[in-house]
Each structure stands twice: as C-alpha cells, then as structure tokens.
Specification:
By secondary structure, this protein is mainly alpha-helical. It has helices at residues 15-21, 24-27, 31-47, 53-72, 84-96, 109-145, 165-189, 209-215, 225-230, 233-259, 287-310, 324-347, 353-360, 367-376, 381-398, 407-413, 421-424, 427-432, 442-457, and strands at 150-155, 158-164, 267-268, 350-351.
Length: 458
Amino acid sequence: MANLWGGRFRSGTDKKAYQFNASIGFDCRLYKADITGSIAHVTMLGKTGILTEEEAETIRCGLKGILEDLEAGKLTISGEYEDIHSFVESVLTERIGETGKKLHTGRSRNDQVALDMKLYIREEIGEADSLLFGLLNVLEETIEAHTETYMPGFTHLQKAQPVTLAHHLDAYFEMFKRDRSRLADIRARMNTSPLGSGALAGTTYPLDREYTAQLLGFDGAAANSMDGVSDRDYLLELLSACSIIMMHLSRFCEEIIIWNTDEYRFIEIDDAFSTGSSIMPQKKNPDIAELIRGKCGRVYGDMMSLFTTLKGLPLAYNKDMQEDKEVVFDALDTVKDCLELFTGMLGTLRFNKEAMKKSAGGGFTNATDLADYLVKKGVPFRDAHGISGRLVLSCIEKGCTLQELSLSEMKEECSLIEEDVYEAISIAACVEKRNTKGAPGPEAMAKTIADNREYLKQ
C-alpha cells in the first residue's frame, strides 16, 4: 500500500514503525464524517473554479458511493491503510480514476482530521444528550410516583432530617440537567470549521471557507489557521463533561448499592440488572451499579490522559494529537453504555416504602423540628437547640424516640411544651411544613414537578 506522502522518501517505513504510526484501527469510525467533509470540500472546489463542475460532481458521486457501500456492508475498511483519509482517497481513485487524486486539493490531513473529529463529536454529543434526556424522563416518572414516600435525608452518611424519595431523586434531576447544559455549551463553542486551515498556514488556493462551514452546519470558519488544526479544547471540555456525568452516575449508584443492602432494604434491584454468586446461592449482587461506579475512574483516566498529552505541545499540529481519538472514543462509549444501563436499572427499581418510612423515624431526624416548635413558642433558637439536644440525649439513655417521651418528661426540659408537640414532630409534619423553594413539602414539590415537566417539554 503506497502512502499519500511517499514522494520525498528514498526507502519505506519500518514495518513496526508503520504500524505504530497508523491510526486506521481506531479512526475507522470517522468514515462518515470524513466522507461528509470531503463532499463539502469538493463542492466548494467546484464552486470556486479550483476544480471543474464536472470533476467535482464525479468526485462527489464517487464519495457517496463509497459511503453507501460502507453503510450497506458491501465495502470493508482495510487495515492495510494508514488512516481513514488514505483509505477513502485510495478507494475513490480506484473507482473513478485520476480525478480522485484531485480530492485533496487545498487541504491537509491536519485540517481534515480536525474537521472529522468535530463532525463526529457533534453527533456523539447529540446521542449522549438524547440518553440523558431519556434518563431524565424515567427519573421524573419516579419522582412523581413518590412524593409521599418518606425517607431519611443524610449528611455525613448519618440520618439528618426526613425528606421524601421524590425530593431526594430530584437532586439528581438537577445534576443531569446541568450535564445536558454542559454538552450544549460545548457543542456551541466548538462549532467552527477548521477546514481550509491547511497544514497550519492556510493555502494559496482561493478557498471559500465560509461556504464549506455553511454546508457542514458550522457557525463559521475557524478564525486562525494554526488554532484551527491544533485546537483540542473542545475534546478536553467534552472529557470533563463526561467525567462529571460519570461522577453523578457513580454517586447515584453508590446510594442504590447502599439502599439495596440487607441493612437498609430500601429497594430491590430487578433481576435483569443483578447477578449471583458462584458459591453462595442466596446472593443477588448489584453488579451493574458497581460497574458503572467503577467505570467512572476509567473516564477520569481518559480525561487526564488527554490533558497530559496536550500540556506541552507547541503550535501547530503534532503527531501526539493522534492520541486524542482512542481516549475520547472510549469515554463516549463508556458514558453512553452507562447511561443506557442505568436508565433501565432505575426504571425497574422496586422501592420498599415501609422500610424507608420506618428508617425516616429513626435517628432523631425530627430533632430540628422540635427546636423549631420551641422557637414558635418564643424560645430563642440557640436555647431551643440546646433543649432539643438534651431531650435527644435523654432518649438515647432511655432507648426511645422523641415521640415516645411523655409530655411530663418533655416539660422537665421546657414548660412551654404542650400536647401539640407530638403532631409537630411527626415525620409527615416534618416534611409537609417545608415548602420553601426546593424543599420536600407538597407545595414545593408540586412546583418542582411542574417545572420539571415544562423542562422536558422544551
């Protein structure tokens, strides 16, 4: 297989060096982007008169035929080529003859691969966003079904105050909304075309860069040709966004794993997303949740790999940049797989409402509400805090809950406490009284659900 660049060389490349240099094994997935970009490029060459319209049309038809055959499985990408660009150009020339060699006029592989990655990443961002949107829909359905499912809220992994499952899950709704917003920001910021930047200094041909940008759906052409071929900021941003998505999934999975334990029994994971043990017949393990949690580290590694690769590179293009593809492809594949599996797992979870409500009543989660009750009776908050804390200590010594203390026992600490205290510190009241924006109370959650529905409609 002849290289596209062999004219200056007296001898061939060492076989091992050639294989080490080649990227066809992983950049083959860019075939659609490469052909799409080439069609736009040759269309512009015809428009500007750099090629005749007949030449441009011949090349266009040849490229479309290659794409159709690849998609239909009639043509296979061969590993004998150095990269996807040389594969497409070589097959084109085989099919249409010498005219195929004119495809690369006014273009370098540097701006070509930069274009391919941008076109590919735009599509991938759309797919990831669609998966996030699907997850948000399942999450919202679960939220709406559990506005009265009481559970403990935690700080420091200790019971803090009672909330509802809907309120707890809505925190993740907000996280995944931000993930979509980050992806949208990246897509908007990266949407300039590097095509026409050449190797680094543009070209002497009268290219119409804005025209190719328009054909490919970009907002415009990259402003600087050196930046056009060497910019990988959008990939760093994407890997950062992927890492944050995985962090959110990992946190959620950690809670699912904890809630699934025999000690909690808040949930049961469906058999379809669990596995067993080869030795212990009773086991039902949350392997999918654990794997998603584990793969978070993998995506972090992809991100750090590219940051490290780029940190010392002088302008403009360097072969090191070939290392951007495998880590980005791996991160995107991992994120998409995890989003799809997590959505399926979430949609089939079974929640043990009674266990969650019982747990919400333990750990003195209503101690803050007791203090608030006293404040409403005229006790300064700091004093109310102390009274409530001493009553908790008394409960610990007696092995009971605040609700199980007698009225006389409570009055020993504060004479202002009356019979209405028991209603004030009930788990339902502790939740239902909290109706400030973003709180778990029914009025606040109704507004949150309405906002979520409106968001999902947009």
